[in-house]
From TrEMBL:
It comes from Nocardia bovistercoris. InterPro entries: Amino_oxidase (IPR002937), FAD/NAD-bd_sf (IPR036188), Flavin_amine_oxidase (IPR001613), Flavin_MAO (IPR050703). The keyword Lipid metabolism does not apply. Residues 13-445 form the Amine oxidase domain. Gene3D superfamilies: FAD/NAD(P)-binding domain. Its cofactor is FAD. The keyword Oxidoreductase applies. This is FAD-dependent oxidoreductase. Belongs to the flavin monoamine oxidase family. FAD binds at E33, A34, V234, E422.
Length: 461
Protein backbone atom coordinates (compact mmCIF):
# COMPACT_ATOMS: atom_id res chain seq x y z
CA UNK A 1 0.00 0.00 0.00
CA UNK A 2 1.41 3.39 -1.01
CA UNK A 3 -0.03 6.68 0.18
CA UNK A 4 0.70 9.69 -2.05
CA UNK A 5 -0.82 13.05 -2.97
CA UNK A 6 -1.62 11.96 -6.53
CA UNK A 7 -1.63 8.81 -8.60
CA UNK A 8 -1.04 8.79 -12.37
CA UNK A 9 -2.08 5.84 -14.52
CA UNK A 10 -0.05 5.39 -17.71
CA UNK A 11 3.58 6.20 -18.49
CA UNK A 12 3.27 7.57 -22.01
CA UNK A 13 4.10 11.24 -22.59
CA UNK A 14 0.78 12.39 -21.05
CA UNK A 15 1.24 10.49 -17.80
CA UNK A 16 4.94 11.30 -17.57
CA UNK A 17 4.29 15.02 -18.12
CA UNK A 18 1.51 15.04 -15.50
CA UNK A 19 3.64 13.22 -12.91
CA UNK A 20 6.70 15.36 -13.64
CA UNK A 21 4.86 18.66 -13.22
CA UNK A 22 3.26 17.44 -9.97
CA UNK A 23 6.58 16.28 -8.57
CA UNK A 24 8.22 19.57 -9.60
CA UNK A 25 5.40 21.36 -7.73
CA UNK A 26 6.42 19.50 -4.56
CA UNK A 27 3.68 16.85 -4.52
CA UNK A 28 4.20 13.13 -3.94
CA UNK A 29 3.23 11.01 -6.93
CA UNK A 30 2.94 7.34 -7.87
CA UNK A 31 2.89 6.60 -11.61
CA UNK A 32 1.64 3.11 -12.47
CA UNK A 33 2.57 1.86 -15.94
CA UNK A 34 1.23 -1.42 -17.32
CA UNK A 35 4.22 -2.32 -19.49
CA UNK A 36 7.76 -3.01 -18.40
CA UNK A 37 8.84 0.09 -20.35
CA UNK A 38 7.82 3.75 -20.57
CA UNK A 39 6.86 5.79 -23.63
CA UNK A 40 3.54 4.15 -24.56
CA UNK A 41 2.85 4.80 -28.24
CA UNK A 42 6.43 6.06 -28.57
CA UNK A 43 9.15 3.43 -28.24
CA UNK A 44 12.76 4.19 -29.08
CA UNK A 45 15.08 1.27 -29.64
CA UNK A 46 18.81 1.97 -29.62
CA UNK A 47 20.75 -0.33 -31.99
CA UNK A 48 24.21 -1.72 -31.25
CA UNK A 49 25.82 0.77 -33.66
CA UNK A 50 24.31 3.67 -31.65
CA UNK A 51 21.64 4.52 -34.22
CA UNK A 52 18.06 4.52 -33.01
CA UNK A 53 14.68 3.44 -34.31
CA UNK A 54 11.44 5.08 -33.28
CA UNK A 55 8.97 2.20 -33.39
CA UNK A 56 6.08 4.59 -32.67
CA UNK A 57 5.75 8.39 -32.63
CA UNK A 58 8.85 10.06 -34.06
CA UNK A 59 8.37 13.43 -35.75
CA UNK A 60 7.76 16.94 -34.46
CA UNK A 61 6.68 20.09 -36.27
CA UNK A 62 6.27 23.84 -35.91
CA UNK A 63 3.69 24.89 -33.31
CA UNK A 64 4.41 21.85 -31.15
CA UNK A 65 5.68 24.12 -28.42
CA UNK A 66 5.18 21.83 -25.43
CA UNK A 67 7.30 18.99 -26.80
CA UNK A 68 9.87 21.62 -27.78
CA UNK A 69 9.78 23.02 -24.23
CA UNK A 70 10.29 19.54 -22.79
CA UNK A 71 13.25 19.01 -25.18
CA UNK A 72 14.69 22.34 -24.08
CA UNK A 73 14.27 21.39 -20.39
CA UNK A 74 16.26 18.19 -20.90
CA UNK A 75 18.76 19.52 -23.45
CA UNK A 76 17.54 17.41 -26.39
CA UNK A 77 18.43 18.96 -29.78
CA UNK A 78 16.48 18.33 -32.99
CA UNK A 79 17.40 17.85 -36.64
CA UNK A 80 15.43 18.52 -39.82
CA UNK A 81 13.78 15.72 -41.79
CA UNK A 82 15.67 14.86 -45.01
CA UNK A 83 13.60 16.23 -47.90
CA UNK A 84 16.16 16.67 -50.71
CA UNK A 85 15.42 14.88 -53.96
CA UNK A 86 12.15 13.75 -55.46
CA UNK A 87 9.16 12.18 -53.76
CA UNK A 88 7.18 9.45 -55.51
CA UNK A 89 3.58 8.35 -55.81
CA UNK A 90 2.37 5.17 -57.45
CA UNK A 91 -1.11 5.30 -58.94
CA UNK A 92 -2.66 2.61 -61.13
CA UNK A 93 0.70 0.85 -61.23
CA UNK A 94 2.49 3.93 -62.62
CA UNK A 95 5.26 5.73 -60.76
CA UNK A 96 5.39 9.52 -60.70
CA UNK A 97 8.40 11.35 -59.28
CA UNK A 98 7.87 14.95 -58.25
CA UNK A 99 9.16 17.85 -56.17
CA UNK A 100 7.03 20.34 -54.25
CA UNK A 101 3.63 19.34 -52.94
CA UNK A 102 1.67 18.45 -56.08
CA UNK A 103 2.48 15.46 -58.35
CA UNK A 104 1.31 17.19 -61.57
CA UNK A 105 2.61 14.43 -63.87
CA UNK A 106 0.04 12.01 -62.43
CA UNK A 107 -2.82 13.90 -64.10
CA UNK A 108 -3.15 17.67 -63.81
CA UNK A 109 -6.90 17.14 -63.45
CA UNK A 110 -6.54 14.78 -60.47
CA UNK A 111 -3.81 16.96 -58.95
CA UNK A 112 -6.07 20.04 -59.17
CA UNK A 113 -8.89 18.04 -57.63
CA UNK A 114 -6.67 17.02 -54.71
CA UNK A 115 -5.50 20.62 -54.22
CA UNK A 116 -9.09 21.93 -54.27
CA UNK A 117 -10.29 19.28 -51.80
CA UNK A 118 -7.48 20.11 -49.38
CA UNK A 119 -8.23 23.84 -49.66
CA UNK A 120 -11.87 23.16 -48.87
CA UNK A 121 -10.97 21.00 -45.87
CA UNK A 122 -8.63 23.77 -44.66
CA UNK A 123 -11.45 26.27 -44.99
CA UNK A 124 -13.84 24.01 -43.02
CA UNK A 125 -11.19 23.49 -40.30
CA UNK A 126 -11.15 27.26 -39.67
CA UNK A 127 -14.74 27.11 -38.38
CA UNK A 128 -13.96 24.53 -35.67
CA UNK A 129 -13.76 25.82 -32.05
CA UNK A 130 -10.91 23.67 -30.74
CA UNK A 131 -12.08 23.50 -27.11
CA UNK A 132 -15.57 22.43 -28.18
CA UNK A 133 -15.72 21.20 -31.80
CA UNK A 134 -19.23 19.88 -31.15
CA UNK A 135 -20.43 23.50 -31.01
CA UNK A 136 -19.24 24.35 -34.56
CA UNK A 137 -21.99 25.84 -36.72
CA UNK A 138 -22.00 22.76 -38.95
CA UNK A 139 -21.15 20.26 -36.22
CA UNK A 140 -24.37 18.25 -36.54
CA UNK A 141 -24.12 18.07 -40.32
CA UNK A 142 -20.43 17.10 -40.34
CA UNK A 143 -20.76 14.59 -37.52
CA UNK A 144 -23.49 12.71 -39.38
CA UNK A 145 -21.23 11.80 -42.26
CA UNK A 146 -17.98 9.92 -42.60
CA UNK A 147 -14.80 11.08 -44.26
CA UNK A 148 -15.59 8.56 -47.05
CA UNK A 149 -18.92 10.27 -47.71
CA UNK A 150 -17.26 13.66 -48.01
CA UNK A 151 -14.44 12.35 -50.24
CA UNK A 152 -16.98 10.62 -52.44
CA UNK A 153 -18.77 13.93 -53.04
CA UNK A 154 -15.62 16.00 -53.45
CA UNK A 155 -13.38 13.93 -55.71
CA UNK A 156 -13.82 13.55 -59.42
CA UNK A 157 -11.52 10.62 -60.18
CA UNK A 158 -10.62 7.26 -58.69
CA UNK A 159 -6.96 8.23 -58.33
CA UNK A 160 -7.76 11.51 -56.53
CA UNK A 161 -10.00 9.56 -54.14
CA UNK A 162 -7.38 6.87 -53.55
CA UNK A 163 -4.60 9.37 -52.82
CA UNK A 164 -6.72 11.54 -50.56
CA UNK A 165 -8.03 8.50 -48.72
CA UNK A 166 -4.49 7.18 -48.22
CA UNK A 167 -3.30 10.55 -46.96
CA UNK A 168 -6.23 11.59 -44.78
CA UNK A 169 -7.82 8.34 -43.56
CA UNK A 170 -4.21 7.15 -43.06
CA UNK A 171 -3.88 9.70 -40.25
CA UNK A 172 -6.63 7.78 -38.42
CA UNK A 173 -5.22 4.42 -39.57
CA UNK A 174 -8.73 3.41 -40.58
CA UNK A 175 -10.98 3.11 -43.59
CA UNK A 176 -12.43 6.54 -44.47
CA UNK A 177 -15.92 5.14 -43.76
CA UNK A 178 -14.98 4.55 -40.12
CA UNK A 179 -14.20 8.17 -39.18
CA UNK A 180 -16.54 11.12 -38.66
CA UNK A 181 -15.90 14.13 -40.90
CA UNK A 182 -16.28 16.39 -37.84
CA UNK A 183 -13.57 14.45 -36.02
CA UNK A 184 -11.23 14.73 -39.03
CA UNK A 185 -11.78 18.50 -39.19
CA UNK A 186 -11.27 18.86 -35.44
CA UNK A 187 -8.10 16.78 -35.35
CA UNK A 188 -6.65 18.58 -38.35
CA UNK A 189 -7.64 21.99 -36.95
CA UNK A 190 -5.98 21.12 -33.64
CA UNK A 191 -2.68 20.93 -35.55
CA UNK A 192 -3.32 24.02 -37.70
CA UNK A 193 -5.04 22.45 -40.73
CA UNK A 194 -4.38 19.85 -43.45
CA UNK A 195 -1.16 21.55 -44.60
CA UNK A 196 0.42 20.85 -41.23
CA UNK A 197 -1.02 17.37 -40.76
CA UNK A 198 -0.03 16.06 -44.18
CA UNK A 199 3.11 18.14 -44.62
CA UNK A 200 6.73 17.16 -44.14
CA UNK A 201 8.77 20.35 -44.52
CA UNK A 202 7.22 22.84 -42.00
CA UNK A 203 4.55 20.22 -41.31
CA UNK A 204 4.06 17.44 -38.77
CA UNK A 205 7.12 15.55 -40.10
CA UNK A 206 9.42 18.57 -40.12
CA UNK A 207 12.02 17.40 -37.59
CA UNK A 208 13.02 14.75 -35.06
CA UNK A 209 14.65 14.82 -31.63
CA UNK A 210 18.27 13.66 -31.77
CA UNK A 211 18.19 10.25 -30.09
CA UNK A 212 14.51 9.76 -30.89
CA UNK A 213 11.54 10.23 -28.57
CA UNK A 214 13.35 8.15 -25.96
CA UNK A 215 15.87 10.96 -25.59
CA UNK A 216 12.96 12.97 -24.10
CA UNK A 217 11.04 10.39 -22.07
CA UNK A 218 14.12 8.78 -20.48
CA UNK A 219 15.34 11.91 -18.63
CA UNK A 220 11.73 12.66 -17.59
CA UNK A 221 11.72 9.19 -16.01
CA UNK A 222 15.07 9.80 -14.31
CA UNK A 223 13.67 12.92 -12.65
CA UNK A 224 10.61 10.98 -11.52
CA UNK A 225 12.85 8.27 -10.04
CA UNK A 226 11.10 5.87 -7.68
CA UNK A 227 7.71 7.49 -8.28
CA UNK A 228 7.51 5.18 -11.31
CA UNK A 229 6.19 1.64 -10.95
CA UNK A 230 6.56 -0.47 -14.10
CA UNK A 231 4.64 -3.64 -15.00
CA UNK A 232 1.63 -2.50 -12.93
CA UNK A 233 -1.47 -2.64 -15.13
CA UNK A 234 -4.18 -0.82 -13.21
CA UNK A 235 -7.29 -2.97 -12.88
CA UNK A 236 -9.49 -1.04 -10.51
CA UNK A 237 -10.09 2.56 -9.42
CA UNK A 238 -12.35 3.15 -6.44
CA UNK A 239 -13.30 6.58 -5.15
CA UNK A 240 -14.78 7.39 -1.77
CA UNK A 241 -15.55 10.65 0.01
CA UNK A 242 -11.88 11.35 0.88
CA UNK A 243 -9.62 9.57 -1.56
CA UNK A 244 -9.12 7.29 -4.51
CA UNK A 245 -7.77 3.76 -4.28
CA UNK A 246 -5.95 2.57 -7.38
CA UNK A 247 -5.18 -1.14 -7.65
CA UNK A 248 -2.85 -3.04 -9.94
CA UNK A 249 -2.10 -6.74 -9.43
CA UNK A 250 0.65 -5.96 -6.94
CA UNK A 251 0.13 -2.41 -5.69
CA UNK A 252 -2.55 -0.45 -3.90
CA UNK A 253 -2.16 3.32 -4.10
CA UNK A 254 -4.22 5.72 -1.98
CA UNK A 255 -4.24 9.29 -3.29
CA UNK A 256 -6.29 12.48 -3.20
CA UNK A 257 -6.91 12.31 -6.94
CA UNK A 258 -5.90 10.18 -9.89
CA UNK A 259 -4.97 11.23 -13.43
CA UNK A 260 -5.83 8.51 -15.94
CA UNK A 261 -3.60 8.85 -19.03
CA UNK A 262 -4.34 5.70 -21.05
CA UNK A 263 -5.66 5.63 -24.65
CA UNK A 264 -9.45 6.07 -24.81
CA UNK A 265 -9.71 2.87 -26.84
CA UNK A 266 -8.64 0.77 -23.84
CA UNK A 267 -9.75 2.92 -20.88
CA UNK A 268 -12.76 0.66 -20.30
CA UNK A 269 -10.41 -2.20 -19.39
CA UNK A 270 -10.15 -0.49 -15.99
CA UNK A 271 -13.01 -1.17 -13.58
CA UNK A 272 -14.26 2.14 -12.18
CA UNK A 273 -16.14 1.98 -8.90
CA UNK A 274 -18.57 3.65 -8.60
CA UNK A 275 -19.34 3.49 -12.31
CA UNK A 276 -18.40 6.51 -14.36
CA UNK A 277 -21.14 8.88 -15.51
CA UNK A 278 -22.89 7.53 -18.60
CA UNK A 279 -21.38 10.02 -21.06
CA UNK A 280 -17.83 9.20 -20.00
CA UNK A 281 -18.26 5.44 -19.95
CA UNK A 282 -20.03 5.52 -23.33
CA UNK A 283 -17.18 7.65 -24.70
CA UNK A 284 -14.82 4.81 -23.72
CA UNK A 285 -16.96 2.41 -25.74
CA UNK A 286 -17.11 4.67 -28.77
CA UNK A 287 -13.57 5.88 -29.52
CA UNK A 288 -11.65 2.98 -31.09
CA UNK A 289 -8.13 3.07 -32.50
CA UNK A 290 -7.07 2.13 -36.00
CA UNK A 291 -4.44 -0.34 -37.22
CA UNK A 292 -0.86 0.53 -38.04
CA UNK A 293 2.32 -1.40 -38.75
CA UNK A 294 5.49 0.67 -38.66
CA UNK A 295 8.63 -0.97 -39.98
CA UNK A 296 12.21 0.30 -39.97
CA UNK A 297 14.14 -1.22 -42.87
CA UNK A 298 17.84 -0.64 -42.26
CA UNK A 299 20.55 -0.55 -44.98
CA UNK A 300 24.26 0.19 -44.79
CA UNK A 301 23.55 3.56 -46.35
CA UNK A 302 20.58 5.61 -47.60
CA UNK A 303 21.11 4.55 -51.23
CA UNK A 304 17.91 6.29 -52.40
CA UNK A 305 19.52 9.67 -51.66
CA UNK A 306 22.17 9.01 -54.33
CA UNK A 307 19.35 8.29 -56.79
CA UNK A 308 17.95 11.77 -56.09
CA UNK A 309 15.01 10.36 -54.13
CA UNK A 310 13.90 11.76 -50.77
CA UNK A 311 12.66 8.36 -49.60
CA UNK A 312 9.13 9.73 -49.35
CA UNK A 313 6.61 7.70 -51.32
CA UNK A 314 2.92 6.79 -51.32
CA UNK A 315 1.29 3.84 -53.04
CA UNK A 316 -2.38 3.32 -52.13
CA UNK A 317 -3.16 -0.37 -51.60
CA UNK A 318 0.48 -1.49 -51.36
CA UNK A 319 1.84 -3.40 -48.33
CA UNK A 320 4.37 -0.58 -48.10
CA UNK A 321 1.77 2.16 -48.41
CA UNK A 322 3.92 5.05 -47.24
CA UNK A 323 7.66 5.39 -46.92
CA UNK A 324 9.80 8.14 -45.47
CA UNK A 325 13.52 8.56 -44.81
CA UNK A 326 14.07 7.82 -41.11
CA UNK A 327 17.86 8.14 -40.85
CA UNK A 328 19.31 9.61 -37.68
CA UNK A 329 21.02 13.01 -37.70
CA UNK A 330 24.27 11.44 -38.96
CA UNK A 331 22.59 10.00 -42.09
CA UNK A 332 24.14 6.56 -41.45
CA UNK A 333 22.97 3.80 -41.58
CA UNK A 334 20.18 4.16 -44.15
CA UNK A 335 16.83 3.76 -42.44
CA UNK A 336 13.65 3.69 -44.47
CA UNK A 337 10.43 3.86 -42.47
CA UNK A 338 7.49 1.94 -43.95
CA UNK A 339 4.01 2.71 -42.69
CA UNK A 340 0.98 0.56 -43.47
CA UNK A 341 -2.36 1.60 -42.10
CA UNK A 342 -6.04 0.70 -41.78
CA UNK A 343 -7.53 -2.23 -43.71
CA UNK A 344 -4.21 -3.02 -45.47
CA UNK A 345 -2.41 -3.20 -42.13
CA UNK A 346 -5.02 -5.68 -40.92
CA UNK A 347 -4.75 -7.67 -44.14
CA UNK A 348 -0.98 -7.98 -44.12
CA UNK A 349 -1.09 -8.47 -40.35
CA UNK A 350 -2.75 -11.82 -41.07
CA UNK A 351 0.28 -13.01 -43.10
CA UNK A 352 3.05 -14.74 -41.25
CA UNK A 353 6.13 -12.60 -40.59
CA UNK A 354 8.37 -13.90 -43.46
CA UNK A 355 5.52 -13.46 -45.98
CA UNK A 356 4.87 -9.92 -44.78
CA UNK A 357 8.57 -9.08 -44.96
CA UNK A 358 8.80 -10.49 -48.51
CA UNK A 359 5.74 -8.50 -49.64
CA UNK A 360 7.11 -5.30 -48.11
CA UNK A 361 10.61 -5.68 -49.60
CA UNK A 362 9.17 -6.48 -53.05
CA UNK A 363 7.09 -3.29 -52.89
CA UNK A 364 10.16 -1.29 -51.85
CA UNK A 365 12.28 -2.80 -54.65
CA UNK A 366 9.65 -1.78 -57.22
CA UNK A 367 10.00 1.81 -56.01
CA UNK A 368 13.67 2.12 -55.00
CA UNK A 369 15.40 -0.60 -56.98
CA UNK A 370 16.94 -3.98 -56.19
CA UNK A 371 19.15 -2.67 -53.36
CA UNK A 372 15.95 -2.40 -51.33
CA UNK A 373 15.68 -6.21 -51.26
CA UNK A 374 18.68 -6.72 -48.98
CA UNK A 375 18.43 -4.77 -45.74
CA UNK A 376 20.82 -5.41 -42.86
CA UNK A 377 18.05 -5.13 -40.30
CA UNK A 378 14.25 -5.22 -40.37
CA UNK A 379 12.35 -4.05 -37.28
CA UNK A 380 8.59 -4.30 -37.38
CA UNK A 381 6.09 -2.96 -34.86
CA UNK A 382 2.43 -3.90 -35.21
CA UNK A 383 0.56 -1.49 -32.95
CA UNK A 384 -2.76 -3.13 -33.75
CA UNK A 385 -1.91 -6.04 -31.45
CA UNK A 386 -0.44 -4.02 -28.57
CA UNK A 387 -2.60 -4.81 -25.53
CA UNK A 388 -1.84 -1.52 -23.78
CA UNK A 389 -2.29 0.73 -26.84
CA UNK A 390 -5.32 -0.89 -28.46
CA UNK A 391 -4.05 0.19 -31.90
CA UNK A 392 -2.58 3.44 -33.14
CA UNK A 393 -1.87 6.19 -33.89
CA UNK A 394 -4.82 7.66 -31.97
CA UNK A 395 -8.33 6.82 -30.85
CA UNK A 396 -10.79 8.42 -33.31
CA UNK A 397 -14.49 9.29 -33.21
CA UNK A 398 -16.84 7.55 -35.64
CA UNK A 399 -19.96 9.44 -36.77
CA UNK A 400 -22.22 10.85 -34.07
CA UNK A 401 -19.72 10.51 -31.22
CA UNK A 402 -18.22 13.99 -30.87
CA UNK A 403 -21.58 15.77 -30.88
CA UNK A 404 -23.07 13.31 -28.36
CA UNK A 405 -20.14 12.55 -26.06
CA UNK A 406 -17.30 14.98 -26.91
CA UNK A 407 -18.13 17.17 -23.91
CA UNK A 408 -16.96 14.31 -21.66
CA UNK A 409 -13.43 14.23 -23.14
CA UNK A 410 -11.79 16.33 -20.42
CA UNK A 411 -14.45 16.74 -17.75
CA UNK A 412 -13.20 15.20 -14.45
CA UNK A 413 -15.38 12.52 -12.86
CA UNK A 414 -15.14 13.19 -9.15
CA UNK A 415 -11.55 12.49 -8.14
CA UNK A 416 -10.65 11.11 -11.56
CA UNK A 417 -9.00 13.48 -14.07
CA UNK A 418 -8.28 12.62 -17.69
CA UNK A 419 -5.13 13.08 -19.75
CA UNK A 420 -3.88 11.52 -22.98
CA UNK A 421 -3.33 13.03 -26.39
CA UNK A 422 -6.97 12.43 -27.36
CA UNK A 423 -8.04 14.86 -24.64
CA UNK A 424 -5.93 17.74 -25.94
CA UNK A 425 -7.64 20.55 -27.84
CA UNK A 426 -4.30 21.50 -29.39
CA UNK A 427 -2.16 18.95 -31.29
CA UNK A 428 -4.65 16.18 -30.53
CA UNK A 429 -3.07 12.89 -31.59
CA UNK A 430 0.55 13.97 -31.37
CA UNK A 431 3.19 13.67 -28.65
CA UNK A 432 2.88 17.42 -28.17
CA UNK A 433 -0.85 17.02 -27.44
CA UNK A 434 -0.06 14.25 -24.96
CA UNK A 435 2.33 16.53 -23.05
CA UNK A 436 -0.19 19.38 -23.10
CA UNK A 437 -2.90 17.08 -21.74
CA UNK A 438 -0.67 15.85 -18.91
CA UNK A 439 0.32 19.38 -17.95
CA UNK A 440 -3.34 20.47 -18.08
CA UNK A 441 -4.44 17.59 -15.84
CA UNK A 442 -1.63 18.35 -13.35
CA UNK A 443 -2.79 21.98 -13.17
CA UNK A 444 -6.39 20.83 -12.71
CA UNK A 445 -5.63 18.74 -9.62
CA UNK A 446 -3.42 21.44 -8.08
CA UNK A 447 -6.04 24.09 -8.83
CA UNK A 448 -8.57 21.90 -7.09
CA UNK A 449 -6.42 21.95 -3.92
CA UNK A 450 -6.44 25.74 -3.87
CA UNK A 451 -10.21 25.71 -4.38
CA UNK A 452 -10.55 23.48 -1.34
CA UNK A 453 -8.13 25.44 0.88
CA UNK A 454 -9.69 28.79 -0.03
CA UNK A 455 -13.13 27.38 0.76
CA UNK A 456 -14.11 27.62 -2.90
CA UNK A 457 -16.64 25.20 -4.28
CA UNK A 458 -15.35 22.13 -6.08
CA UNK A 459 -16.19 22.27 -9.77
CA UNK A 460 -15.54 18.60 -10.29
CA UNK A 461 -18.49 16.98 -8.57
C1 LIG B 1 3.14 4.17 -35.33
C2 LIG B 1 2.88 5.50 -34.71
C3 LIG B 1 3.44 6.63 -35.26
C4 LIG B 1 3.23 7.88 -34.69
N1 LIG B 1 3.87 8.97 -35.21
C5 LIG B 1 3.85 10.14 -34.52
C6 LIG B 1 4.75 11.20 -34.86
O1 LIG B 1 5.57 11.07 -35.78
N2 LIG B 1 4.69 12.35 -34.13
C7 LIG B 1 3.83 12.49 -33.06
O2 LIG B 1 3.83 13.55 -32.42
N3 LIG B 1 2.98 11.49 -32.71
C8 LIG B 1 3.00 10.32 -33.39
N4 LIG B 1 2.22 9.27 -32.99
C9 LIG B 1 1.25 9.49 -31.91
C10 LIG B 1 1.94 9.59 -30.53
O3 LIG B 1 2.81 8.51 -30.38
C11 LIG B 1 0.87 9.61 -29.46
O4 LIG B 1 0.02 10.71 -29.67
C12 LIG B 1 1.42 9.77 -28.04
O5 LIG B 1 2.54 8.95 -27.83
C13 LIG B 1 0.31 9.44 -27.06
O6 LIG B 1 0.77 9.61 -25.74
P1 LIG B 1 -0.23 9.33 -24.52
O7 LIG B 1 0.58 9.49 -23.30
O8 LIG B 1 -1.46 10.12 -24.69
O9 LIG B 1 -0.68 7.81 -24.70
P2 LIG B 1 0.26 6.42 -24.71
O10 LIG B 1 1.56 6.80 -25.28
O11 LIG B 1 -0.56 5.44 -25.35
O12 LIG B 1 0.45 6.19 -23.18
C14 LIG B 1 -0.50 5.48 -22.42
C15 LIG B 1 0.24 4.60 -21.43
O13 LIG B 1 -0.71 3.96 -20.59
C16 LIG B 1 -0.28 2.63 -20.37
N5 LIG B 1 -1.45 1.86 -19.96
C17 LIG B 1 -2.47 1.40 -20.70
N6 LIG B 1 -3.37 0.77 -19.93
C18 LIG B 1 -2.90 0.84 -18.66
C19 LIG B 1 -3.37 0.36 -17.41
N7 LIG B 1 -4.52 -0.29 -17.29
N8 LIG B 1 -2.62 0.59 -16.31
C20 LIG B 1 -1.46 1.26 -16.38
N9 LIG B 1 -0.96 1.73 -17.54
C21 LIG B 1 -1.68 1.53 -18.67
C22 LIG B 1 0.31 2.22 -21.70
O14 LIG B 1 1.17 1.11 -21.56
C23 LIG B 1 1.04 3.49 -22.10
O15 LIG B 1 2.36 3.52 -21.65
C24 LIG B 1 2.39 8.01 -33.56
C25 LIG B 1 1.82 6.87 -32.98
C26 LIG B 1 2.06 5.63 -33.55
C27 LIG B 1 1.46 4.40 -32.92
Amino acid sequence: MTDVDYCVVGGGFAGLAAALRLKQAGRTVALLEARDRLGGRTFTEVRTDGSWIDRGGAWIGPGQDRVRAMMHEFGVPSYRQYTDGEAMIVVDGEQHRYTGTVPWSMSPWAAMNIGAALLELGHMCKSIPLEAPWTAGNADKWDRVSLAHWLHHNTLSKSAYALLETAIAGCYTSDAAEVSLLFVLYQMASGGGPGFVLGVHDGAQDARPVGGMGAIYRPMAVELGDSIHLAQPVRHIHQDADKVTVRSDELIVRARRVIVAVPLAIASQILFDPMLPVDRSFLHQRMPSGSIIKTAVVYDEPFWRADDLSGQSAAPGSPATITIDACTDTGRPGILCVITEGPIARRIGRLDAPERRAATLTALAERFGDKARTPVDYIEQNWSIERYSGGGMLSHAPTGVLTQFGHALRRPCGRIHWAGTESSAVMCGWVDGAIRSGERAASEVVEHESLVTSGGKSTTR
